[in-house]
Amino acid sequence: MTATLQLPLPIPTAETTHYWQSALEGRLKVQYCPTCQRHQFYPRRFCTTCLTTDIEWVQASGKGRVYTYTVCHVAAHPAFESRVPYAIGMIELDEGVRMLAGIVGPDLQHLAVGAPVEVCFENIADDIALPMFRLTAGDAPAKQTQEIPETR
């Protein structure tokens, strides 16, 4: 008998419980500071700009752009073997915050810096859903490549 490998699960904390509960409900929420009118992510007990503790949770649009990404051809954990190759990206949300997340979908060959994305959710346990992102139609840039200088 072969044991099924469990995906590593996030452990909610006092600061992140609201975030994870919202994700389980299919909603992406980020913190907002009404004092300095700024969104922030990842969740904290205070505003990182003005240090007030009067921060709120607000519904994010769920839309953004790929800030940077990598395509993994070697699984970071044995439970991810069946997903190889998979993409992980830093997503810049329309609200101005950046978050690290998986990028899913059949069209990853079109993945590029600046590509428009939208949130989707993957239930990985009864009480945990991960915000993931998928490419959307839109004014996606041409795939960007970078020449790597030759070293000797």
UniProtKB/TrEMBL annotation:
It holds the Pfam family zf-ChsH2. This is Zn-ribbon domain-containing OB-fold protein. The lineage of its organism: Bacteria, Pseudomonadati, Pseudomonadota, Betaproteobacteria, Burkholderiales. Residues 20-56 form the ChsH2 rubredoxin-like zinc ribbon domain. It comes from Variovorax robiniae. InterPro entries: ChsH2_C, ChsH2_Znr, NA-bd_OB-fold, Thioester_dehydratase-like. Residues 57-122 form the ChsH2 C-terminal OB-fold domain.
